[in-house]
Amino acid sequence: DAGVTQSPTHLIKTRGQQVTLRCSPKSGHDTVSWYQQALGQGPQFIFQYYEEEERQRGNFPDRFSGHQFPNYSSELNVNALLLGDSALYLCASSTPRQEFYGYTFGSGTRLTVV
Amino acid sequence: AQRVTQPEKLLSVFKGAPVELKCNYSYSGSPELFWYVQYSRQRLQLLLRHISRESIKGFTADLNKGETSFHLKKPFAQEEDSAMYYCALMYTDSNYQLIWGAGTKLIIKP
Hints:
The structure holds two protein chains of two kinds. By secondary structure, chain A is mainly beta. Chain A has a single domain (about 5-110), classed as Immunoglobulin-like. Chain A contains no helices and eleven strands. In chain A, strands 2, 4, 5, 6, 9, 10 and 11 form a seven-stranded mixed beta sheet that branches. In chain A, strands 1-3-8-7 form a four-stranded antiparallel beta sheet, with no helix packed on it. Chain B is mostly beta strands. Chain B has a single domain (about 5-110), classed as Immunoglobulin-like (Sandwich), CATH 2.60.40. Chain B has strands at about 5, 10-15, 20, 25, 30-40, 45-50, 60, 70-75, 85-90, 100, 105-110. In chain B, the strands form three sheets. In chain B, strands 2, 5, 6, 9, 10 and 11 form a six-stranded mixed beta sheet that branches. In chain B, strands 3-8-7 form a three-stranded antiparallel beta sheet, with no helix packed on it. Chain B has a two-stranded antiparallel sheet with strand order 1-4. The chains are: A mainly beta, B mainly beta. The interface of A and B includes residues 3, 56 and 90 of A.
């Protein structure tokens, strides 16, 4: 089991551009959460997807959007990139009723906006 | 607002010494708390969870509701414990969103 897989590993974008990050959850998991981790900080919750719907959203602007596919994989899209969007983006998967037992994290995508 | 505070950014102890990583939270309800660890060049992984009341790699953590704390402890530190440690709070009225502390970097000196 490959666990949670994220792609790409690293990405450099120019301010104002758009970016799409991808996540495949751990086998058997159907819930995907996205987090942003700035340097020296803990992760910040962006949103969570379950049954192809956004179930919960953190305090992030509408420039951040997502999608979940029928195979439970997910995308995170960020429009109109700002320098402050530079961060490590983490994907975490789980199953309903298993959240209390912890999430499984991917290695993350390091986004640099120049 | 719900918050998790890890007051120490860096903690350095000698091998064999006791370790305590502090975590305080603010939450009016009944929290579920976790410790996650990130070893060098590895992904975040769950270390232990309050709900299970377990001991992993010699680490334990006790929830103290009076002091709103969930400190991580180990009686005898080992060099392989050097890592970044994050305390996280989950509350059910947010569909299981995790609120994270800023993390503590633990360095075990030989």
